[in-house]
Structure formats: C-alpha cells, structure tokens
Amino acid sequence: MLDKQVVLKILAENIRVERARKRISQEHLAEMSDITPQHLYRIENAKVCPTILVVANIAKSLGVSLNDLLPL
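Below the sequence we write its predicted structure tokens.
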C-alpha cells in the first residue's frame, strides 16, 4: 500500500522539476491548468491531494504523461 504523503511529495517534486525545466512560472502553469496559483502552490508543496483531473490537466499543460508525474 502506498503512503499518501510519499505520493504527494513525489508528485510535488515532479511538477516543480518539469515546470522549472520548461521555464514556466507557477502562475502561468496554474492558468494553463485551470486552477488558482494558490492551489498549484499547495500541490507543489504537498499540502493538498489534488484530484486526478487536476493532475491530468497539469500533466497536459506541461506536455508530459501522468506516468511522468507519478512514476509509481
């Protein structure tokens, strides 16, 4: 069984790395993903558990697959 906090930390780190690699600001990624910058901040700091639809929108906005963000 997966530990929720571990999964959230993996997701958070992978989003931050992909966003930085593509030189996209948090604000711009949030806008592209149809979420607020505050929500993206909380996701990138493993403070909230986003829905699968939010993660899918973030992945699409970054041009990566869900597997790239959650390689479990």
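The radius of gyration is 11 Å.
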